[in-house]
Design brief:
Layout (H helix, E strand, L loop, with lengths): L1 E4 L12 E3 L2 H8 L5 E3 L2 H32 L2 E6 L7 E6 L1 H12 L8 E2 L3 E3 L1 E10 L2 E10 L1
Parallel strand pairs: 4-9
Antiparallel strand pairs: 1-2, 1-3, 5-7, 6-8, 8-9
Length: 146
Amino acid sequence: MKVVLMQDVKGTGKKGETCNVSDGYARNYLLPKNLAKELNAAAINELKGKESSLAHKIETETAKAQADKAALDNKEIVITAKAGTSGRLFGAVTAKEVAAEIEKQLGVSIDRRKMNVPDIKQFGVYNAEIKLYNKITANVKVFVKE
């Protein structure tokens, strides 16, 4: 019997593959546990629909990441912070604060967990790397001053 796998099945195949398996294996194991569907026109159309929607999602997310990269790349963010007499900051400037300033100054919403910000404990210029999507990163300069 030909089936389309809905999940990875050890020894049979990966999700989305079409396999030729024995009738008993399909009827008694794969189909009742919703690990596979019988290969017919409806199953093929559903599989193609899922693939096309996934491709469209990837395409739109990549386009958004490219647009965000164009808006962010090599831009400068100015953050003001308080410091003691020795020039060391009270606390540190975190990725959360940098993300908030990016949204405030450039209008681009960034998740703080996707930022690679060095430890900012003194005034100066720092480079922050932002991972926008798979293999798409932007670099932002962070100026910390009083």
